[in-house]
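Read as amino acids, tokens; as here:

___
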Amino acid sequence: LEDVASRLAAGGPQEITAHENFDLLYTVLRHFDSVHGRVRTKLLETCCSLVCQMVQVLTGPAEERGDGPVLRNALRMSVFLLAWAIRRADRITMDTVGLSVAATPRKGGTSKSRKNQPASDAS
């Protein structure tokens, strides 16, 4: 993981498109529940750093952006890894606290009692 982070820092965020970089991060994510906390932290830091670097590249001068399709693919891969890492970390936190996703309250929508009430006239 340290080697991948070093390669990404040295070569730029587009290096995520290299199979040896993406595949290792993806594999660590697949086994996120069973890896040590320091590895989880390093993975989250690496994914966050990737997305931040991508934002800097995308908002920088056009001549420094390089190949558009590669850049878009690198952004997609970075965001995918970060989103998945956050979901996995959130699930572990919920399991640790003793909550499940099904037990968390829903946000939004209308309650059943409000659905069955007649609409009030504004006249």
Q: What stands out?
A: The radius of gyration is 21 Å. The chain has a mean pLDDT of 80. The CA atoms of residues 81 and 110 lie 33 Å apart.
